[in-house]
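@channel sequence for tomorrow's demo:
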Amino acid sequence: VAVILSSIGISVATEHLDFRLVDNNKMAELGGEERRDQRGFTDYRQYSQVFGLFKDRHLSVYILYGMPRLECIDVLAHELTHAWLFSHGRTKTAPQLCEGSCNYASLLTLKQFPGPESDYITNNMLSGPDMVYGEGLRRVKSWVEDVGIAAWLEYLKKRDKNPW
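structure tokens (generated this afternoon):
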């Protein structure tokens, strides 16, 4: 997944990430009971700053254990994009832009695995009713189709507000 993301410009140093497979109870504990259906979670912490620079950062990526392969690929792409955003200092990105961009990266990753299962996951993401994840994805997708992938990634590296 990291190799696919890197090919589109989202390079993540996975050797610096702490990956953990967890059960539903741990995932609910991480995301809160209101997100009990959550399949992934990225926890990023900065421990100190010196002259505006991060001195120590820690990233943990939690993935729900037991998902089918393509669903796991989808979730990994989403969570690795969160890690990429954090590596660029983006910790306060508007929710629709943040989650929509992470879902868009998942969409691009799933295109590398054509077939009915990938189509099913993609269609569910694109038709999702959630205002942050579903609507965010649709807005990011439309915007990227207008400006291109390179402009999208450059924008994400520097800005936190929705461009629409």
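heads up for whoever presents: The radius of gyration is 15 Å.
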